Amino acid sequence: MSITTRPITKDEIERFRERVYRGFGDELGEEDRDPKRFLALMPLDLTVAAFDGDEMVGTLAACDFDVTVPGGAPVAMTGTTVVTVQPTHRRQGVLTAMMQDHLDAVAQRGDSLAGLWASETGIYGRFGFGHATSKDDVEAPTLAVTISTDAEGTVRLIEPDGVVELLAPIYDAARRSTPGMLSRSQEWWAHSVVHDPPHRRDRDQISAKRFVVYQADGSAEGYAIYAQKSDWSGEVPLGQVRVIEVISTTDRAHTGLWQYLANIDLFPRIRWWNMPVDDPLWWKVAEPRRLVRKRGDALWVRIMDVPAALEARSYETDGSIRIAVEDAFRPETSGVYELAVSNGVGKCVAVDANADVSLGVDALGALYLGGSSAVSMAAAAKIDGAADRVSLLHRLFRTDVAPWCEEVF
Ligand SMILES: CC(C)(COP(=O)(O)OP(=O)(O)OC[C@H]1O[C@@H](n2cnc3c(N)ncnc32)[C@H](O)[C@@H]1OP(=O)(O)O)[C@@H](O)C(=O)NCCC(=O)NCCS
User: Fold this and answer.
1) Does the active-site annotation cover 409?
2) Which atom of ligand 1 is nearest to the CA of 99?
């Protein structure tokens, strides 16, 4: 089998998307055939398709994001997505070939980071991606989510055509203080956040997306997006509120939105598959144990340029450490780097010296946004070094706010 790889042309979008859906065991619906959405979100020059002769057997594409790093800076990150290999061609190196092209393209465009959500945790470590943010899938009876506090502000439903104008500024304000959150272009708002195709709703038997905004003292301080899944047991309502996103810039907005979501008649159950792991809801409710939480991996980060990435973020403590980075997939990234932090600002250079700690580039990606414990990773042999140096690495990289990525891309 001889595999070739290249970006697709506009004429090949439909075939590419058919392969993506088939790769995930799904079907491209008639309603989804319009290439407009694909073109708005995924630049053609960043696609990679793999061919066996004329047959397209592999797909990969990318989106443009800035990701917020600790300290609040937005850093360009290529978002890797729609990775599939047809079932007939798996475990023969097709993804490896596509990933080589893809990461070369990321390096060429000068992004110091790539990021993705993984369908399975065993796939991407070998390509240098590390599990950088986590999420909690939370399910609860709404009674358990009741927060006793004097109501402040109001919550109102808004129509999809008013979403971008009202919600985007709230989102952007929240994004600046949360590592791991992604920038959203106008196209992204339209084609991903507001996008709500009827056939997907029918399949999951859920309502249209609802958008609510929380306002107090004349300013909009938060919003929630959710859908509703009706359910009846005999004549007893058992519906579930499916939270898609809760974004708040103030504590009272957070409280007001959860009070709203937990008090919708006929919907006594609530679920959010992507709650931040340090969401304050846990501390606000009377019976937190009833919020059943299942922890999972979320955004995976791949560091392409170690000095650029490490200098872009801030640090919680000062100190100096030499880090040996091993990158088997892109050996040019391997080396010893000295990170010197003063007043929270890092300077990072490649040095010809012995290292204090050594780790894979995937482990560095896992640490990068502050969501992983270097001490715990050292105990799992993902980081090597003396205990005091590992402890310093841990204290340098951890963050006050747990990193969180708001959506799968
Ligand atoms: C995941 C997928 C793209 C891998 O493609 P592939 O062409 O089989 O991957 P490769 O042959 O290049 O595999 C490279 C290495 O990764 C390993 N690998 C590939 N898929 C893996 C998986 N799902 N779990 C664990 N290891 C995996 C291979 O065993 C191989 O290991 P080796 O180098 O030690 O031999 C393919 O299985 C697929 O399309 N799966 C369904 C869709 C999907 O989940 N896509 C990912 C979306 S995030």
Assistant:
1) yes
2) 12
